[in-house]
Design a protein that fits this description.
2 copies of one chain form a homodimer. By secondary structure, chain A is of the alpha+beta class. The first copy, chain A, is 28% helix and 33% strand. Chain A is built from 8 helices and 10 strands. A 6-stranded antiparallel beta sheet of chain A has the order 4-5-6-9-8-7. Chain A has a 3-stranded antiparallel beta sheet with strand order 1-3-2. In chain A, 33% of the residues are buried. Chains A and B meet through strand 7, strand 8 and strand 10 of A and strand 7, strand 8 and strand 10 of B. Strand 7 of chain A pairs antiparallel with strand 10 of chain B. Chain A binds a DNA duplex through helix 3.
Amino acid sequence: MSAQLLAVQIDRASPVPLYHQLAEQLSAAVADGTLQPGDPFENEVALSARLQLSRPTVRRAIRELVDQGLLVRRRGVGTHVAGRMVHRRLKLSSLYDDLAREGRDPRTTILEHEIREDERAAIALDLPPDTPLLSIVRVRSAGDSPLAILHNWLPPAYSDLTREDLETSGLYALLRDRGGRPVVAHQSVGARMPTATERRHLKIRGSHPLLTMTRSAFDAGGNAVEFGDHCYRAQDYTVDLMVDER
Amino acid sequence: MSAQLLAVQIDRASPVPLYHQLAEQLSAAVADGTLQPGDPFENEVALSARLQLSRPTVRRAIRELVDQGLLVRRRGVGTHVAGRMVHRRLKLSSLYDDLAREGRDPRTTILEHEIREDERAAIALDLPPDTPLLSIVRVRSAGDSPLAILHNWLPPAYSDLTREDLETSGLYALLRDRGGRPVVAHQSVGARMPTATERRHLKIRGSHPLLTMTRSAFDAGGNAVEFGDHCYRAQDYTVDLMVDER
DNA sequence: GACATCAGAATGTTAGAACAAAGTATTGAC
DNA sequence: GTCAATACTTTGTTCTAACATTCTGATGTC
């Protein structure tokens, strides 16, 4: 029961770390099906000898794949390719990106765009309650069908975003362009009936609920990036997520 | 601007790895407020010299804290304590555990308990569509107030769970006792109006929606552990979660 | 044939060393 | 005084080396 010998090419002149070069190529082998779930993986020592790399380097590459959930390691047994369902694919995406990816023609109508104080939003962003925040209310549609009402508050660092910016692009894309890459978010998802105003904006007829979500997003250093209070037509939208305790 | 010298005790006779002993004590210093967000952290070399540990060992301990989101490292600058909001605290908890922790007297009524085939559940668990699954329907209450209807399907390995087991304990606790520790789950959260039966079981009067959640859970090896289709009274329940892209 | 013992194979832990890269602070020239 | 070059600090990468721990399977005895 010997493992498959994967073809790997290492470029020692490249500025990208050896362990990462290796990790990417191994990762690709799992992704493209060269290695199937359950398949045994070449062991550390053999791999390091074959590729002329030290064991710590190979070990670190394998660790990256284990962290992604692509491989499972057991002491005394070996390393194997994990089942497809445990592969990690996290994303902190926005509705705009999701719709754009599906080719559903995302559109934005801006209802509000002004600097204000808001205690609830400030607290959620771990900022002083009297911090002036840019408050934005948008209706997001796919084609002619309104899907969601998005209320967001941004800290002072981003308060120069214009209405025009927001009409043509998603909020998260704008934040990324400004260097504020959100990597952590606290979300809370619930449901309730819409108000009369919400029914009008979302063109809801009959008895249909809203899916609500609040989100506080932060960058890697813990700086506040955005607080959002969103509501979606529950008929057209679900929140999908992956919980991972490894 | 020198960093605080933390008191750390390392027991080389202990079977617990040195890096983990160190990580736990450093983690505690952040948790109990000895180190505040933004505080500088003693650098790797100094710490390894002071504690008589090798740099790789210290480095691995620090890496553990970085992975938890407790510390932030930047090359050339140093290591600092991260803001409180980016600390990772993941949990794959069940409603029973949540209620018990809050002292809200969780109770369970079993409506169904039988072996059946269910194509949707089997597919969600990455099993053949004709796999016989243990199908369980429960009403979960806090005291006398019904909160949720929980429909779960379990793979054959767990199909010997009895009604009595389920009445006295949470499903996740039972699974853990049997060695099936779920570490990864795919969840989908939505909202809809309740059916007449659901209104009766959950004692819903008036126009109130349900929060729905489906979940497929797997252990570290990728083996199916559970598929659940739950609905909650949206008035009393929200799904809280933390998304993390680090 | 059933069970305990043991060897082998794999990952896990720890150490010591050297150099690379990035950011900060100081120094020096103009 | 301003600005650029330099030195220093700190984390990042890579290697060699040795021993520990855990699981599997083979060996061998009763």
